[in-house]
Design goal:
The chain has about 400 residues and is of the alpha/beta class. It has 17 helices and 14 strands. Helix 2 runs parallel beside helix 3. The longest helix is centred in the N-terminal third of the chain and has 35 residues. Bound molecules: ligand C2E and magnesium ion (MG) (2 copies).
């Protein structure tokens, strides 16, 4: 669990931030002055700092300056809180090395998103750092021309090159994770999840490499391959004793905007000889919110073909009820963040119930992912959730292992 340090001289602001962040599952520490903040960070470095600019004594700029000057604390991301909206305040903050700004009064969703994004970036940075020793060694060996780049740039460059290579060398595979229909205990389908074994390193999380593929403009190619593989797999299952099965694929917003996703899907289904209703595409709430008019018309074409549409990670993004009604949808997948503590945190429980009811009132099915315990299962069953996915039943598995899992369940 990530630990966030809140630094603000106003007790009400500290209390508000603590409540909002604890609600999202973060562990918080809080202090009322810059001096206390520096002392605490030296002892117990947090994963992220929310730092007020205007404080008596040492102000936020001075605190950020000291932290960013010290190599031991320079990597801790800082979000500055300012009541000042002038660009000059932001500029001074950026010069001291703060990564982000939030204006007071703090807007809940903005706070969550900025915190979440920065923590993701940090963990990405940490992973990169773990490669840096090796790279420093390489640098020393190569000596000259690349020596001016810093190690972080090099590690990123290395990762990008490795990914480009992965696309040409077809190093990706798909794992499949089963989904269980609560009403009858049957397997209702599987989600296809992309896997990459980086040569010489081991598995890299899609949470890390998918955003890079997006940035490099490679996600359209890889995403097309994912859909192709999923269609071929449906056809294979259909012909085998296992029988046809619904397969969900994750689709990046870039695929909707940059590629001709809809035509591709129609072609790939036809080539594999698979009926469209076996395929479901999962789009995140945030990707739906980009370029909505285009997205809505694309999704309408997809839906008209018979392909199913799910919103993934639902509940943390921006979607308004008005939008939800305009998207042609089949499924809401509750964000894993609400499932994690659904049996211990009454607010998460209330949100999960609300999402399930919302789904049903819109005629959609509700799917919970990240279900790990029998207690979560019992809660979701009682709350009327339609389908469950999670380690409790199975991890995402390679095809052969998944097929063995199916046969065991059927008692064959
Ligand atoms: P997602 O679509 O929300 O996928 C669910 C994630 O939760 C998967 O992580 C899955 O392995 C993990 N998970 C499943 N059951 C449990 C559980 O019981 N507990 C916990 N803690 N986690 C569980 P994974 O495979 O690392 O994928 C991460 C994300 O990467 C996915 O989130 C999706 O957004 C993205 N992704 C994966 N494959 C693709 C793809 O083919 N295309 C695109 N565009 N994105 C992909
Ligand atoms: Mg998904
Ligand atoms: Mg999800």
């Amino acid at each position: 669990m990530a630990t966030l340090l809140i630094v603000d001289d106003e007790p009400q602001v500290r209390k508000l931030l603590e409540t909002l962040l604890q609600y999202e599952g973060y562990h918080t520490l809080s202090v009322g002055s810059g001096e206390e903040a520096l002392a605490l960070v030296a002892e117990q470095p947090p994963d992220l700092i929310l730092l007020d600019i205007m404080m008596p004594g040492m102000d936020g700029y001075a605190v950020a300056n000291q932290l960013k000057d010290n190599p031991a604390t320079a990597n801790i991301p800082i979000i500055m809180l300012s009541a000042l909206s002038e660009p000059s305040a932001r500029l001074s903050g950026l010069q001291t090395g703060a990564e982000e700004f939030i204006s007071k009064p703090v807007e809940r969703v903005e706070l969550w998103l900025r915190v979440r994004n920065l923590l993701r970036l940090k963990s990405y940075g940490d992973q990169l750092k773990s490669h840096s020793l090796m790279l420093e060694q390489q640098l020393r060996e190569r000596g000259s021309e690349t020596a001016k780049m810093n190690v972080h740039d090099l590690a990123l460059l290395d990762l990008e090159n490795a990914l480009r290579q992965a696309v040409t060398a077809r190093e990706f595979t798909l794992h499949y994770q089963p989904k269980l229909e609560l009403a009858n205990g049957r397997i209702s389908g599987v989600e296809a999840l992309l896997r990459w074994e980086r040569p010489g390193y081991g598995a890299v999380s899609p949470g890390i490499f998918v955003p890079i593929l997006e940035r490099l403009g490679l996600i359209v190619t890889v995403g097309r391959w994912v859909i192709e593989q999923a269609c071929l797999q449906i056809a294979r299952w259909q012909r085998s004793g296992i029988g046809a099965m619904e397969v969900s694929v994750n689709v990046s917003g870039h695929q909707l905007i940059e590629g001709d996703l809809i035509t591709d899907i129609g072609q790939l289904l036809a080539d594999a000889g698979v009926e469209p209703h076996w395929l479901e595409v999962e789009l995140t709430e945030s990707s739906l919110m980009e370029n909505t008019p285009h997205t809505i018309s694309s999704l309408q074409r997809l839906r008209a073909m018979g392909v199913k549409i799910a919103i993934d990670d639902f509940g943390t993004g921006y979607s308004s009820l008005a939008y939800l009604r305009r998207f042609p949808l089949d499924t809401l997948k509750i964000d894993i963040a609400f499932i994690r503590e659904v049996t211990s945190n009454p607010q998460d429980a209330a949100i999960a119930r609300t999402i399930i009811e919302l789904a049903h009132s819109l005629g959609l099915r509700a799917v919970a992912e990240g279900v790990e315990t029998p207690a979560q299962l019992a809660f979701l069953k009682e709350a009327g959730c339609d389908q469950l996915q999670g380690y409790l039943f199975s991890q995402p598995l390679p095809v052969a292992a998944l097929e063995r899992w199916f046969w065991r369940r059927r008692g064959v």
